[in-house]
Amino acid sequence: MPRVTAAWNGKVIAASNNTIVIEGNHYFPSDDVNHEYLRESRTQTICDWKGVAQYYDIIVNGEVNDDAAWYYPEPKPAAQNIQNRIAFWRGVKVLRETG
């Protein structure tokens, strides 16, 4: 399986050979994410089939990307495979390495 990275503001936030793609988003295992760049956000959203999402702000070199990562702490049964996984958006570059 190819390695996938998530980077923002010149730093790799996550790198994994074990992402799960749902609705076009790569969900990285929490252990493959560099949590030093994450700060809990108060933002929550609700997905009908995945459940309640919690968000992280990403902070790199003093710059903040609000709510740029999310996860489902208690996903609904249909989304159990993304438990303990984190996905990214808002300018975070998610790339599959080739070759």
UniProtKB/TrEMBL annotation:
Q: Which residues form the DUF427 domain?
A: 4-90
UniProt xrefs under Gene3D superfamilies:
Domain of unknown function (DUF427) (2.170.150.40)
Q: Name one Pfam family in it.
A: NTP_transf_9
* Protein name per UniProt: DUF427 domain-containing protein
Q: Which organism is it from?
A: Methanoculleus frigidifontis
